[in-house]
Design a protein that fits this description.
Layout (H helix, E strand, L loop, with lengths): L1 E4 L2 E3 L5 E7 L8 E7 L6 E6 L6 E3 L7 E6 L4 E6 L8 E8 L13 E2 L3 E5 L2
Parallel strand pairs: 2-11
Antiparallel strand pairs: 1-3, 3-8, 4-5, 4-9, 5-6, 7-8, 9-10, 9-11
């Protein structure tokens, strides 16, 4: 299973790091994606990191502001978010998948975390 944590309220322009801890499977064999969702909208891909951490991807809306990283020894992936904007407000979900391919395909993921709320507001 996956456990997302670290969400909260932050002012515009601020920073926040959310974490995703895995258990019950061989974490290092899985690539991890971060997605976010707001009410009435589809879940969208935010960032992705391959199993060895050597390759990362970002959506156009967060590139240059968010950084994804992982520590396989701790079975944890981090998403560092900076220069946050009100439009970054969403529930953030982490997901793990064994297969490769286009990372934004939601059905390609095997495990999902429960989500953590990030609110950017003054």
């Amino acid at each position: 299973q996956l456990q997302a944590s670290g969400g909260g309220l932050v002012q515009p322009g601020g920073s926040l790091t959310v974490s995703c801890a895995g258990s019950g499977f061989t974490f290092g064999d899985y690539s991890i994606g971060w997605f976010r969702q707001t009410p009435g909208k589809e879940r969208e891909g935010v960032s992705y990191i391959t199993r060895n951490g050597r390759t990362t991807f970002y959506s156009r809306s967060v590139k240059g502001r968010f950084t994804i990283s992982r520590d396989n020894a701790k079975s944890t992936v981090y998403l560092q978010m900076s220069s946050l904007k009100p439009e970054d407000t969403a529930v953030y979900y982490c997901a793990a998948r064994y297969q490769t391919g286009v990372w934004t395909v939601i059905d390609s993921y095997d495990y999902w975390g429960q989500g953590t709320q990030v609110t950017v507001s003054s």
